[in-house]
Design brief:
This protein has about 425 residues and is α/β, with parallel strands linked by helices. Helices cover about 60% and strands about 10% of the residues. It has 12 helices and 9 strands. The strands form 2 sheets. The protein has a 7-stranded mixed β-sheet, with helices on both faces. A two-stranded antiparallel sheet has the order 6-7. It is rod-shaped. It binds S-adenosylmethionine. The site of S-adenosylmethionine has 19 residues, from α2.
Length: about 425
Amino acid sequence: MQRFWGTVIEPVLEAVQPKIIVEVGSDQGVNTANLLKFCRQTGATLHVIDPAPGYDVSKWQSEYGDCLVFHKELSLNALPSIEDFDVVLIDGDHNWYTVFNELKTVERLCEERSQDFPLVLLHDIGWPYGRRDLYYDPDSIPEEHRKPYDKKGMLPSVPDLVEEGGMNRHLNNAVREHEPKDGVLTAIEDFLGASQYALDLLELPGVHGLGILTPAPLKSQNPDLARLLSELDFSPLVERYVQGVEKARLELQVRQQEERREYQRRLDVESRELRETRQELRQGRQELRQGRRELRQGRQELEQVRRNLREVRQKLKRAHEELRVERQRLKVAEGEIARLVLWIEELGEGIFALSNSRQWKAGHALGALRRKVLRRPEEPATMDRLQAVLEQFRAWRRERNSRAGGSQASGQDQERKEDR
Ligand SMILES: C[S@@+](CC[C@H](N)C(=O)[O-])C[C@H]1O[C@@H](n2cnc3c(N)ncnc32)[C@H](O)[C@@H]1O
């Protein structure tokens, strides 16, 4: 509605000089801001009705003070609480039930209060909601007045909703247009058909259409208003011309909405991909950090293993050295034992040769005879004692050889040699 401000709304207000203005449907408050500036200049009061305004009302309240009375409600609930109204602007819920009953409520209140019917400006009497319902809040509409609806787009001259593209596919649009009791303009016409008041409807084409409902007495009392309205009442030729311009504008608007939706869709996809990439990047960084931690830990463990290995090698080196020294000692000991064994073997051979010599046998017999003559007791023979020691030596040799294992053959040779 705000697009009509400079060309229609402000001139109408200046002509009417209202004390109380009511605006139904404020949205982002573009038209509301214009109205408030007008009220501040003229000392009028603005009642704004909107259950879901798109701005911070309290800020506006403190800026405009008594000029603004805000009703955060549905229009049909709020209207009866407003005591008087000179001009009403209707641009709230664009469906037959709401608009028809908004006008009916205004009419009823005027009758009850014996007031004049106000001048009423109504937006969206053209396409798409002139002949088709829209429900901002479907649950607020009684079921018998709620038509089947869907969140799908609309195209001019196509009565059904379209599956792809189209206008306002984010809103709850009635499935069909041009039904009975369907749309804003139908609601106005049905109201006018039943109203007791003498009201003139001026239909302005373009920018979705604006209806100006003027009580006949007001027009006759206010020549400025009458002149303005007659200037706005286009000739059929100009009206057709404006409708042609509106048709082209609507086509552009539909295309623009489709492009915006496509752009938004791509933006959503790219945002999602960006979010996923960021997530993967975060995860990658975490894994990298974890990998670095594990690498550091692995290096420390490797360093520890190397230290342990160095220690083991040093121990092994020391053990080798000790082994080499021990082997050296063993070798020396083995050599000495071999020499001793050789000497004992030579001694054994000497004793064997001696005990078999004629000289020793004769000496041994003489000794035995002398002991007999001198009646001396028999002494243990030295040769027997030597033989006993040699026998012990041989037993040690056998045991040693069997322990040595590999050197068994040479041990046996040795024994054979010893046994001789
Ligand atoms: C098309 S926008 C109004 C645009 C505004 N008049 C302008 O010119 O900028 C419709 C607004 O009506 C409000 N609305 C919806 N249903 C309503 C109802 N039953 N009563 C009052 N406001 C309503 C919505 O919250 C929305 O902010």
